[in-house]
Amino acid sequence: MRSALVPPKSISIPAIDLDQIDAATFQTRYVDPGRPVLLRGAMKNWAALGRWQDPEYLAEAAGERVIYAADPANGDRTQLPLKDLWRGIFAEGGAKFSSINASINTKGQSGILGNLTSDTKLGPFLPHAHHVSTKVFAGYNTRCGLHLHPDTEAYLCQVVGKKRVILFPPDDWNHIYPANWYSPYVSFSKAHFARDGQWPDFGEFPQLAKTHPMECVVEPGDMLYIPIYWWHVVWGLGAAICVTQFFRSSLSKRFMTRSGLRCNYLNRVGGMRLRLQMRKRGLTAGV
């Protein structure tokens, strides 16, 4: 029997047209205080907005590459031709193996999807473009687990279809049920949101009722700015493709905040030592 507790009401993530803001304002209003914002019309010069609507274009660009793919039902991974995965995403109902999580580039080094680089552009107001890593997340009715980024800020750039995103501020840490402080998965929550968008059972995770969620639907041409340490869960609504650009956050945010101390000091220093000791004893850190 599920708990009588209900999900807290989400606040809409603020949205602003890119033409209405400049770099200085973006920095002081959103980056410095760590506030998410949806930038409308931020991808007007992206060729991907037109080209990636065609699965055959993506299949041809894939060539004979092979990639690991996850079964949406059970998470099992297998190697499949990339061109088949692109076609499967657009198939009616989605192909069984239709989830893509692959790199375009990592700090200047081309990834498996590197030949699609020219279809994309760097997001606006990026101070250190050479530190940017870019990945493609694509699939049919996908869902990523609740997690945070311990080192980076991010732009979620929506290319095809729509994605629903729920964000939780860093102050919600104690209500999110993160993995144990010594776990290598400390940036992930133990609470699992369902693929159909349902929240976890509050009988098992009652503290979630005390969180302060913010929510939006990201549409083609939109960029969602996700500050460091903001927990988030993302659903693809039907066939959906996004490009996420990760860029290194400031030293002060990474190491001089409560979340930074937990992720980048306590976990990486103390947790690493503990995991090594546990490994010597034949134990596992778990979650």
Reconstruct the topology from this structure.
Elements: E1 11-12, E2 15-17, H1 23-31, E3 37-40, H2 48-51, H3 55-62, E4 66-70, E5 77-81, H4 82-90, E6 100-106, E7 109-110, E8 133-140, E9 143-147, E10 152-168, H5 173-176, E11 214-218, E12 223-226, E13 231-248, H6 251-255, H7 258-280
Parallel strand pairs: 1-11, 2-3
Antiparallel strand pairs: 3-12, 4-5, 6-7, 6-8, 8-13, 9-13, 10-11, 10-12, 10-13
Helix pairs in contact: 3-4
Throw out a few tags for this protein.
287 residues, two-stranded antiparallel sheet, eleven-stranded mixed β-sheet, alpha+beta, globular, Jelly Rolls
Main sheet makeup: 11 strands, mixed
Kindly report the name of the CATH homologous superfamily of one domain.
Cupin
> Which stretches are low in confidence, meaning pLDDT under 50 for 5 or more residues running?
none
- Taken from the alpha-carbon principal axes, the silhouette is globular
Indicate the proportion of strand residues.
25-35%
Please identify the top-level CATH class of one domain: Mainly Beta
The rounded Rg comes to 19 Å
Fraction of residues in helix:
10-25%
Note the run of SSEs as H and E: EEHEHHEEHEEEEEHEEEHH
SS class: alpha+beta
How many DSSP E strands?
13
Gap between N and C termini:
25 Å
